[in-house]
Hints:
The chain is mainly alpha-helical and 492 residues long. The protein has one domain. 63% of the residues lie in helices and 3% in strands. It is built from 20 helices and 4 strands. The protein has helices at 3-14, 16-24, 30-34, 52-55, 87-91, 103-136, 139-150, 154-170, 174-186, 194-225, 230-257, 263-266, 268-280, 319-324, 327-342, 345-375, 390-427, 434-449, 457-463, 469-478; strands at residues 260-262, 290-293, 304-307, 314-318. It has a 4-stranded mixed beta sheet with strand order 1-2-4-3, sandwiched between helices. Strand 3 and strand 4 form a beta hairpin. The chain starts with a helix and ends in a 14-residue tail after the last helix. The chain binds zinc ion. Zinc ion binds next to helix 15 and helix 17.
Amino acid sequence: MTNRRRIARCVLACLMLAVAFPAASTQGAEMYLAASCTVGVSMALRCSTPHGKAAGYITATRQSSAPAQMSAQVNNLAKETPASPDEHAQQSQKRVTSYTLPHGTYAKARHLSRISFLLRVFLPFYQIALLALILRWGWSSKFRDWAEAASTRRIVQAAIYSSLFLLAFTLPQLPIAAWVHWLLRRYDLVIQGWASWFWDHIKTQFVITIIGTLVIAGLFRAIRRSPRRWWFYFWLGSIPVTLFFIFISPLVIDPLFNKFEPLQSHDPALVDSLERVVARAGLSIPPERMFWMNASAKVNFVNAYVTGIGASKRVVVWDTTIEKMTNPQILFVFGHEMGHYVLGHIPKGLGLLEALFFLLFYIGFRLSNRVLQKKSQAWQIRAPDDWASLPVYGGILLLLLFVATPLTNGMSRYFEHQADQYGLEVTHGITPDSGQVAAQSFQILGEIDMEDPAPNRLEIWWFWDHPWIGDRIKFALEYGPWSKGESPEFVK
Ligand SMILES: [Zn+2]
């Protein structure tokens, strides 16, 4: 093999770490790595989920399970009025002036918000502490010894080391995830049974181990070959590898956790309505790229998102959304998602994230050198390219990502706000009273997700990747360039 090909291979593999670590850690990068966006399912407790989108562990009150085929009052595109519209259907069309929660939900939403905040602060440090213990107790060097004794082939060593290391890292986090699951089940936000929950964890562990093996093998190959510039090659490789994962995620990873079917086969009327919004934007998203997801098997909350890239790009609408919202409300949610698509938020987000990673990897490289110089003897690490040093790189990266959270979340909130504006513009003229319909959508999302009715601004600034729903409702009700004779910004 030529030298150049070797380097290319190593670069490609090592960049995968950039995917694996954030995926296994906290939110922030998750949105871009999963390349999905949710309109309302904002924050809460996502950090504890193995698979952000699948289990989205947020909040949702139990709504009427009756199929909410809602009345067509608001919109001529809506489905036919059901024979007996249920209570929820009327509820969902009440005029909204600000974000409010019924008394019983208010206290629960506040409680969830507090827990979510504590977890967001506590979890990264708990993870760093776990890594420190794995080093201090000599586990990392033991895993390396076993891996090296088992085989002389580097890739086999990487597989053995990363399986053991990832098990030691994720198992102590399982009780926290279980507690969160218990809490969300108690609040009726999640209905997934324990056996299914546990099975999801096993699958997640399996996926992380495969990706981890490749990433770790690549990383150490880069360190061995270029002790001074490995951080740069690692960063460079993270670009194609991240793109690759965004591409295969909806095709290979998402179906491991949820069932996807063509939206057309579940709700052809909705597809027709969506096509009208798509045409309004001058776009073409064929019905084959619109998917229905069976979320109601696991959760009660609602969601829709855009995912994938190139040939795998698609729009996904959860069945819970179709049940709990009217067609005009779904159109707004869809318009928001289209905003991300049209305004190029996935490539822009990736670009900004890669710029940030460039800086973080360099700082991480410098810091890890210092830590290894001081501690390698105590932790029985032979050199920077020793498998046993992995927890050092992981811990430093987690710490840096935590510090950078306000940056990534600030960018995310900005994109979300733009998508809200786009959703308002693209449904204007298609949906009568589109600002009010958008406000209703947010109210439903907030109620179902039990979004905090009075969040702390500092907390939003640091930890939230979506703007507060109260602010989004206010904006939806106030935004109206048309009445002022101005031209809308995105949809002319
Ligand atoms: Zn969004």
